[in-house]
Design goal:
By secondary structure, the protein is of the alpha+beta class. The chain contains 13 helices and 30 strands. The protein folds into 2 domains: 238 residues, Distorted Sandwich (Beta-galactosidase, Chain A, domain 5), CATH 2.70.98; 352 residues, Alpha/alpha barrel (Glycosyltransferase), CATH 1.50.10.10. The strands form 9 sheets. Strands 7-8-9-10-19-16-15-14 form an 8-stranded antiparallel β-sheet. A 5-stranded antiparallel β-sheet has the order 6-5-11-18-17, with no helix packed on it. Strands 3-4-12-13 form a 4-stranded antiparallel β-sheet, with no helix packed on it.
C-alpha cells in the first residue's frame, strides 16, 4: 500500500505523489457543469521523474521535505549524481511545474539523461463514486507549446492538458535544449547532457490545464515565461503569510499540513467556470470525494480557512449563501448546489448560520450579513427550522445524525444545542429579538427533556423522542463534548462533566479508554475518530489529545476518518480534507490558548 505526498492550488490537485519513486498517479480538478471532479490518471503513472547515468536507468530512493508543510521536494543519490525534484503548484494558476536538478558529486564528467515521462490511460469522473469517461480522448501536436496536447472532446470540448519546456518565439530567451517525444498517450520529456565535475544541470517542466487546447497550453507557457524561481518565490511568500507558528516543531508540521490540505482540498475553483466552491475532499482517495455537506464544509473546514485568509473565507460564504442556499440542511449536494443525497440534517441547517457568525466575529465585516441574499437565506433557514419544531416542546427534529446515519430518536441534544446557538445569531442578524426568547425555550427544553440521572449524577443523553424514550450514545462528528465550545454551558458544568466521563469511560462500548489511542468511535466507524481528537482538544483534554496525535500517523500526516486504537494507522477515510480543517483549527485553538 502506497503512502503519498500531496500538494495543490485552487485549480488543481496532486493527491497521489508516490513517496517510493516520486511519480504522480493523477491530477484532479473541479468541473462545475459536471457537478464534481475529474481526474486525469495513468495506470502506472501520469508523470514520473527519472534519471539515467552513463546510459543506464537509476532506481530512485527519494528522501522528502516540504517547504511550509506544502511544497514537496525530494532528493535521491546514485552513481555519483544527486537528483532533486520539486513539485510547485503556484497560487492562482491553472498549471503546475516540476523542477529537476542533477548535480555531479564526482571529480569527472558524467553523461546523464533526466526528465519526466508517463502515460494518460483514463479520465475519471468522481462524486462519491468513480466513473470512467470512455469517449473523446485525443492527442495531437500543437504549435502553442511546441509539443503535444491531450484533450477530452466527446463531441464538444471538455478539457485539455499540455506540457511545455521551451518557448521558440524569436524574442524569448527561454530554451533549455529539452526534448519532448510522444507516442499516442505516452510521452517522455527530458534533457540529455554531460554534467561536468561538481557542476549541475536543471530542467523545468510545466503542465497546464484548461477548457481546450489554447487555454491548457498557454496556462503552462505562462508559468514558463514567469520562470520557476519567480513562481516559487511568490508561492513561498503566500504560504509564509498564512503558516501558523507554534513552539513544538512536530505539532507545527501537523497543524500546517492539515491547514493547507483543508484550504486546497476542501475548497477550490472549477476549471470551466472559475467559481470557488466547497467539497469534502478533492482527493479521490476519500470515499465520498467531491461533494458538498453543510456540516463538513462550514463547521469543520471553514474555521481553519478563516484563520488562514479572511478574504477567501468571505468569498466562500458568498458561494454558500447563493449556490448552496436553496437546499440548506439537505444531507449532501453537488458542488452546484443541487441535491445529491436527500434526507434532512438539523446540524447542517445550522452550519451556515454558525459559519457566518464566526466570519463576522473574526473579520469585523458585519455588512456581509446585511446583504439581501444573505438575509433571504437566513429567513429561509428560519422557516425550515420552524417546520421541524416539536408540536409542544421547543425541540427540533432531525432525520439523519451527524454521521449521516438514520437516528434512533428524532430530537438530538447536540443538534438542539446548535439550534439554541443559531437562534441567538438569527435574532441579531435578522433583527428579531423575539428569537432570543425562543432560544431560551430551547435551552430549557434541552435541560428538561435531554437530561437524565443514573443515580450517580445527571447527564445529557444523545437523543429523545419527546415521550420519555432516550439513548446514551455519542458521535465524533457532533459530540456532546462540544457543548461548552458552542457556549451552551461552561466546562465546570456538573451535568456536562458527568456526560463526558460516561462516554470516555471504558464501560461505554465505543470508548477506547485504556487503549493507546483512547478516543471515541461510533457505529459508523467503530474505531477512534480523528474528529474525536479534535473534540478533545476543544473540550479540556488537550494533553491526552496531543499524546494521541503523536502516536498516530493518520494518512501520512493528513487527517483521516478513524485510526486503529492500537497502532494509530488509518482505518477509514483517507485524505479527509474537511476533517483536516477541524484538526488544524482545534490544534491552533488549543496551542495558542496554551501559549497565552
Amino acid at each position: 500500500m502506497h503512502t503519498y505526498q500531496v500538494t495543490g492550488n485552487e485549480y488543481l490537485s496532486l493527491p497521489t505523489i508516490r513517496e517510493t519513486d516520486g511519480a504522480i498517479e493523477g491530477v484532479t480538478f473541479l468541473y462545475m457543469s459536471l457537478k464534481g471532479m475529474l481526474e486525469i490518471r495513468g495506470d502506472d503513472s501520469l508523470i514520473a521523474p527519472y534519471l539515467h547515468v552513463n546510459g543506464s536507468p537509476v532506481a530512485l530512493s527519494p528522501t522528502w521535505t516540504r517547504k511550509h508543510c506544502w511544497i514537496p521536494s525530494f532528493k535521491t543519490f546514485a552513481e555519483g549524481i544527486t537528483l532533486r525534484c520539486t513539485y510547485l503548484t503556484p497560487i492562482a494558476e491553472r498549471a503546475f511545474g516540476l523542477r529537476l536538478t542533477v548535480q555531479n558529486t564526482t571529480g569527472h564528467p558524467l553523461p546523464v539523461r533526466f526528465g519526466a515521462r508517463g502515460r494518460w490511460d483514463r479520465t475519471l469522473h468522481q462524486i462519491n463514486e468513480t466513473t470512467v469517461l470512455p469517449l473523446g480522448r485525443d492527442v495531437k501536436p500543437s504549435g502553442w507549446n511546441n509539443a503535444f496536447v491531450w484533450s477530452q472532446n466527446p463531441g464538444t470540448p471538455m478539457f485539455a492538458f499540455a506540457p511545455v519546456v521551451s518557448d521558440h518565439q524569436p524574442f524569448s530567451q527561454i530554451d533549455q535544449q529539452a526534448q519532448c517525444q510522444w507516442d499516442g498517450f505516452a510521452y517522455d520529456i527530458y534533457r540529455e547532457t554531460e554534467v561536468a565535475a561538481e557542476a549541475s544541470a536543471t530542467l523545468d517542466v510545466f503542465f497546464g490545464i484548461g477548457y481546450e487546447e489554447v487555454a491548457a497550453a498557454t496556462s503552462a507557457k505562462e508559468l514558463l515565461r514567469q520562470g520557476f524561481d519567480a513562481l516559487y518565490a511568490r508561492t513561498d511568500a503566500w504560504m509564509a503569510a498564512r503558516e501558523k507558528h507554534v513552539n513544538d516543531p512536530a505539532l507545527r508540521l501537523l497543524l500546517n499540513t492539515n491547514l493547507f490540505f483543508a484550504f486546497f482540498y476542501a475548497s477550490g475553483r472549477s476549471i470551466d467556470t472559475e467559481e470557488l466552491c466547497l467539497m469534502t475532499s478533492r482527493s479521490p482517495r476519500y470515499y465520498v470525494s467531491a461533494a458538498y455537506w453543510d456540516r463538513d464544509s462550514l463547521l469543520w473546514a471553514f474555521p481553519a480557512i478563516l484563520i488562514a485568509d479572511t478574504d477567501y473565507a468571505r468569498e466562500i460564504l458568498t458561494y454558500v449563501f447563493t449556490k448552496q442556499a436553496r437546499n440548506f440542511g439537505t444531507h449532501s449536494r453537488y458542488i452546484d448546489g443541487t441535491v445529491l443525497e436527500p434526507g434532512f440534517e438539523l446540524d447542517e441547517l445550522c452550519a451556515p448560520v454558525i459559519a457566518l457568525h464566526r466570519y463576522t466575529q473574526a473579520s469585523g465585516d458585519m455588512a456581509f450579513a446585511s446583504q439581501p441574499f444573505v438575509q433571504e437565506a437566513l429567513r429561509a433557514i428560519l422557516r425550515t427550522l420552524n417546520s421541524k419544531k416539536h408540536p409542544v416542546y421547543a425541540l427540533y427534529e432531525t432525520f439523519l445524525q451527524p454521521t449521516d446515519d438514520l437516528h434512533r430518536y428524532p430530537y438530538l441534544t447536540y443538534d438542539n444545542v446548535l439550534v439554541w446557538r443559531s437562534l441567538h445569531i438569527l435574532a441579531d442578524y435578522l433583527n428579531l429579538p423575539e428569537l432570543l426568547e425562543r432560544a431560551e425555550e430551547t435551552r430549557a427544553a434541552i435541560l428538561t427533556h435531554c437530561v437524565r440521572d443514573d443515580g450517580e449524577g445527571a447527564y445529557f443523553v444523545w437523543s429523545v423522542d419527546g415521550n420519555g424514550h432516550y439513548d446514551i450514545y455519542d458521535e465524533p462528528p457532533g459530540s456532546l463534548q462540544l457543548l461548552p465550545f458552542y457556549g451552551f454551558c461552561n466546562d465546570r458544568d456538573v451535568i456536562w462533566q458527568h456526560t463526558v466521563r460516561m462516554i470516555r469511560d471504558e464501560k461505554y462500548p465505543l470508548s477506547f479508554a485504556g487503549k493507546p489511542i483512547a478516543e471515541i468511535g461510533c457505529l459508523h466507524a467503530p474505531h477512534p475518530w480523528v474528529l474525536s481528537i479534535c473534540n478533545s482538544l476543544l473540550s479540556g483534554h488537550v494533553q491526552s489529545a496531543l499524546a494521541h496525535l503523536r502516536l498516530t500517523p493518520m494518512d501520512n500526516g493528513v487527517a483521516c476518518e478513524s485510526v486503529n486504537e492500537f497502532t494509530g494507522q488509518c482505518e477509514t477515510g483517507e485524505a479527509f480534507a474537511t476533517c483536516a480543517g477541524f484538526l488544524a483549527f482545534a490544534l491552533h485553538t488549543a496551542l495558542t490558548q496554551d501559549e497565552r
